[in-house]
Amino acid sequence: MTTEIASDEMAGDGGAERRLTDLATLLHQGFSADEAALRVLLDEHAGELAPPTATLGDPDALWRAAVGFDVDGLTRALDKGFALGTYAEVVDGWLLPSLHHMGLAWERGELGVAEEHFASASVHRRLATIFDQAPRQLHAPRVLVGLAPGSRHELGVLAFAVALREEGVDAVYLGGDVPLQSWVDSITRHTPAGVVIAVPTKEDVVACRRLVTALTQAAPGVPLVAGGSYQDLLDPHVTRLGHSVIPAAARLAGAVRAKV
Ligand code: B12
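That is the input. Now the predicted structure with cobalamin docked in place:
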């Protein structure tokens, strides 16, 4: 990774001098070369994220209904949101942008931490119900979907698992915060057609990179794919799924079916 940073400098990148100064500071603070380089990349990456845009409905309706724990209001907001179109239309067009807006309201102090937990738990239940109601594809290729140790932002990968199941893949959803050894055991015992993880925040990058290394060593033939805002910070052999859940699920489903 230090080479990635140095080669930018050779290419005459304007920020290279600042990057090398930051790198030197971190090395001086006792970080290893790889860890220092990762931190520099993470700091730069933070400014590049484009928030998802709502193409359907009101992306503020979800968090507003959570203020004051309005249980019925939240149910109505979710009913209304999911009635805006098909599951495929609603996920990228309303749900994920609404979660982003919820984060903004939380940052502005308009939504409390407990209210945010209340809303995201309700979204989780809704997605989990849709997942359980979608018919399981028993003879289809199996793909494991879950998060790295310590990573608990599940809603993106769960929405993706539903989409994969609807695309005719046998998506097995492991959930958030899956221990490293359990991931390794799962992929060596079950040899899935693919593994999907997400890198939702900066803090998940180190654990995801460790997970990728462990899975690659344990089962080099199993394709690893990733979504989430920080997916670009994984090793290049991990296929990036991009930031739209539905087109990515369709692409992955096509790819795993083509291999069977
Ligand atoms: C809901 C939520 C939670 C819930 C999660 C519940 C659950 N079961 O998932 C709870 C309450 C648990 C939570 C906890 C925390 N959270 Co939180 N959370 C959020 C919130 C509001 C929504 C998260 C979400 O689902 N976003 C939608 C996702 C899915 O967006 P995304 O990851 O950017 O991904 C995009 C795409 O890549 C695509 N996508 C996502 N996943 C996938 C997967 C595939 C396969 C594909 C193809 C695409 C794809 O969809 C998105 C749309 O573009 C965000 C706000 C936000 N801006 O997202 C904060 C946010 C992510 N949380 C934040 C923080 C700080 C935390 C905590 C550290 C708080 C704390 N002090 O405890 C903990 C950390 C928990 C952990 N260990 O992981 C920060 C992260 C800042 C950062 N460092 O990057 C955010 C951004 C809020 C903020 N503005 O400060 N959180």
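Confidence is low (pLDDT under 50) at residues 1-12.
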